[in-house]
Amino acid sequence: xxxxxxxxxxxxxxxxxxxxxxxxxxxxxxxxxxxxxxxxxxxxxxxxxxxxxxxxxxxxxxxxxxxxxxxxxxxxxxxxxxxxxxxxxxxxxxxxxxxxxxxxxxxxxxxxxxxxxxxxxxxxxxxxxxxxxxxxxxxxxxxxxxxxxxxxxxxxxxxxxxxxxxxxxxxxxxxxxxxxxxxxxxxxxxxxxxxxxxxxxxxxxxxxxxxxxxxxxxxxxxxxxxxxxxxxxxxxxxxxxxxxxxxxxxxxxxxxxxxxxxxxxxxxxxxxxxxxxxxxxxxxxxxxxxxxxxxxxxxxxxxxxxxxxxxxxxxxxx
Length: 318
Hints:
Layout lengths: L3 E5 L10 H13 L3 E2 L11 E5 L9 H10 L2 E6 L16 H11 L6 E4 L2 H4 L5 E2 L13 H9 L5 E4 L12 H8 L6 E4 L4 H5 L4 E3 L6 H5 L4 E4 L3 H5 L6 H9 L3 E3 L4 H6 L12 H8 L2 H12 L3 H14 L3
């Protein structure tokens, strides 16, 4: 792609586990375009500016990014998280960054194009569905390696992910209570925060896994896949955890509400649904058969699928 640039709100580092950094690095390599996270003022304008979503409120380069947004012919917003809302192109935006999107509309420039996992954004005119979460499927996936892991697998339930409390649709706490208040099997929660430990003292707690990630999670008994109510009502790709657990060989069980959106993505979790902690104990007895069935039915060439989606999105650019 000629005269293009990718901007990341998060500092780029080689070993970062931040999803947006992983996406930005992979996309820059795939498209062979420069990747920047320190936008300078008065940089030469680019034809296509690709912005990878992140916590942009913490960026120190928003003013320079605003200049780049106004001068680019095409602006693409890459997104895989419904909690990060892209700036609107209307209203009385105050910051130079937000104002840039409004100014583009006033100047009659092309509206923002979205390459997104969430239907709310990829259904907009000119935008494309790209399942960035497929990027977390382990490229080193190997059935022999998984078989070795499973020989040492324990009979426990494993969960990792954000706590996400509050009273809105994004809260996961009511779901956690189903499985963690009165666990019927040894239950291990991996998290960098203390909220889990304080709320669910009957579970065992460990820090976030940072080394030998797939090897570590692949040795637990079952992995619990939970999504909040918003994710159950608005279509978005399966979470990173889905592809991570699948490629690690960790058999998965699912809360009932996951069914509709997972089926839209081509995965039917019905045989693996657990309504509560008591159901987890029953499912644990056949965990290895569950894992084999999921790997047989759900493992695909996810990297090729992602490449095809991105190439299609690039070809569709105006």
